[in-house]
Specification:
alpha/beta; Rossmann fold
């Protein structure tokens, strides 16, 4: 049976990080939408309500009736509890893809202390951060996105977030604890989140790649997301 997916990208990058996977899901007969969260950078604090409202509005583009499966990558994992609570449609489950796991109990800090300290050194005098790919050496970015065309697309798609986006905390409503969730690990940086999911008895899958493997191998990521969603919801 087909699923209806809502693919959430980290607000520090753009929807191009999910579009290749969305195309595969649509071809496979699933319904899918990728809310564009780039404007969140202009919303002003607190920023998370803009994510919730944008995701809710995007669900109106889905053709399939019934519940949705939320799928979040990277920092968007921390936004899942609020998005699920604010969804206009029932949420049957959530898949975290190389994503930060929400705090239990909440709220969730938007960034760990070491990252926040780094970002404070990168912000310009107006408090605006450079685009995400410029936080890291060029060779690291090229390793994440070996195809030059794909890399150029992702780089051009990025907003410049304000530093105070990373100084906020995201709510974790009680309803999050009862929502079925699964974890798809793509890179070593998220081994601890994967281990936590395993320890909690949640469905887990692992692909060997980098943090942006959804761009590099969208077929594998799409297949893994569908498998985890099916395990969560029992709809196969």
């Amino acid at each position: 049976m087909a699923h209806a997916f809502v693919l959430l990208h980290s607000p520090v990058v753009g929807p191009s990080t999910w579009r290749p996977v969305a195309e595969r899901l649509l071809r496979a007969g699933h319904d899918c939408v990728v809310p564009d969260l780039r404007h969140v950078a202009q919303a002003g604090p607190p920023y998370w309500p803009a994510v919730v409202s944008t995701a809710a509005d995007a669900m109106g583009q889905l053709d399939a009736p019934g519940p949705v499966v939320l799928v979040a990558h990277s920092n968007a994992g921390l936004l899942l509890p609020a998005v699920a609570a604010g969804s206009p449609r029932p949420v049957s489950g959530a898949v975290l893809v190389d994503a930060a796991t929400p705090a239990d109990p909440g709220p969730s800090p938007a960034a760990p202390v070491p990252l926040l300290e780094l970002l404070r050194t990168l912000a310009d005098p107006s408090g605006r951060l450079p685009v995400w790919t410029s936080w890291w050496p060029d060779e690291e970015v090229a390793g994440l996105l070996p195809d030059p065309r794909a890399r150029a697309t992702v780089v051009a798609d990025q907003p410049r977030l304000p530093l105070d986006y990373y100084e906020q905390r995201f709510p974790v409503p009680d309803s999050w604890r009862t929502l079925p969730t699964a974890y798809l690990r793509l890179s070593e940086a998220y081994d601890e989140d994967e281990a936590r999911a395993r320890a909690e008895g949640r469905p887990v899958a692992r692909l060997t790649g980098g943090h942006l493997h959804a761009v590099v191998d969208p077929d594998a990521v799409a297949a893994a997301v569908v498998d985890l969603a099916t395990r969560l919801t029992g709809r196969g």
